[in-house]
Protein 1
Amino acid sequence: MQDSEFQHNFHTHTFRCKHAKGDVADYCERAISNGMKTLGISDHSALPDDRWLGGRMNYVDLPEYIAAIDSAKEKYPELRIVKGMECEYIPEQQSWYEDELLGKHEFEYLIGAAHFFLDTNEQWIPTYGGTNSARSLVEFGKYTARMMESGVFDFIAHPDLFGNCYENWDENCTACTRDIMAAAADTGVGLEVNALGIRKQTAKSPDNPFPLYPWLPFWEEASNYDVKVIVNADAHKPEDLQGKTGAAFQIVNDLGLNHMDVEQIGRA
Ligand SMILES: [Zn+2]
Ligand SMILES: [Zn+2]
């Protein structure tokens, strides 16, 4: 394990999403004291219609979130701070990601994350509890591919989140995974090995039958494709900025996966 592996994190939340602790400056100070070089801030995106408000910032808070990141950039010049958000992908709002977030608000990177996914009837299904059938896995895979093809995301957070409610790996998982891998190979969008998932696995109760994520067969399949991966802490409190990232890098190294060049994220 090399020190450089622990010096970057591109998945960091703030109190604004209502289930994380601390503000941008608290994470910056922790990152600096940990000897880190790069901190990407990526709270759960505000959305213009304020849908799914329970776990994300309110739309009215977006300017203040941006200001908190911009002022941290001035206050902590020794740290490379990168302005991002973790976003659901709502296809009819494509121009909002492009023109408002990446354009007007000058976000430097966006993470795509399917906490919800669209089924074939264009209905939104929650991924927690919702990816528990062959059909829903097909839909989750296709939706994740569609996110990558949108061209607005640098990488996809926890693309193996379907392990939250699918008990045993089978051919449905393999098919879903291959759809995701093919799109990742085509588009060059990265796939995240999420260390928050490892922290959840460590804390999981013995009567929980589900594998959660990272789900190893997913990443074994990744080794058959020309895809890039990224390890992130998915920190919801400052002390988690490097939590279990070593175990996530272990998966990447054991399988010989190709890590993204993090110097390029936010430098478009
Ligand atoms: Zn979160
Ligand atoms: Zn997150």
Protein 2
Amino acid sequence: MKKRIEEVLNQQINEELYSAYLYQAIRAYFESIGLSGFSNWMKVQAEEELFHAEKFFSHIVQRGGRIRLTAIKEPAFEWKNPLDAFKASLEHEKHITSCIHNLVSVAEEEKDYPSKTFLNWFVDEQVEEEDNVSKIVQELEMIENDGKGLLMIDRELSSRTFTPPTNEE
Ligand SMILES: [Fe+2]
Ligand SMILES: [Fe+2]
């Protein structure tokens, strides 16, 4: 595997691990305001991010690359309200989408077709990720921090569980 590809894929491991770290921080914020369903949703979100990091790890190893882990930056600690926290999540997912698109461009430039095919899964995944988070942002905007509405969404989000995709290589 070419050095440039190895380097950018390693950077993405850091991005995915930071994503997990950020969602754990938001989870902790939700715990601090007594919203256990929101907290559960963020816990599952963090688990998915670890799964993403693992996919990049395996791909690099499988292609004969070397893993280099770097420092993960500190996530924010406080958010104004649940809407603010979900808006931050949406912004972050958009950032990740642009990272993935950039990786696809590098894979194309370097003619690394196996990496390009590997990245297709993430291109689709990001469409889903942004859509899921946007829907919750919309719901939160609708209720305008109304307590009853928050509890309804909290109950809804409490049922989310982590299921790793099965049709994976
Ligand atoms: Fe991710
Ligand atoms: Fe994500």
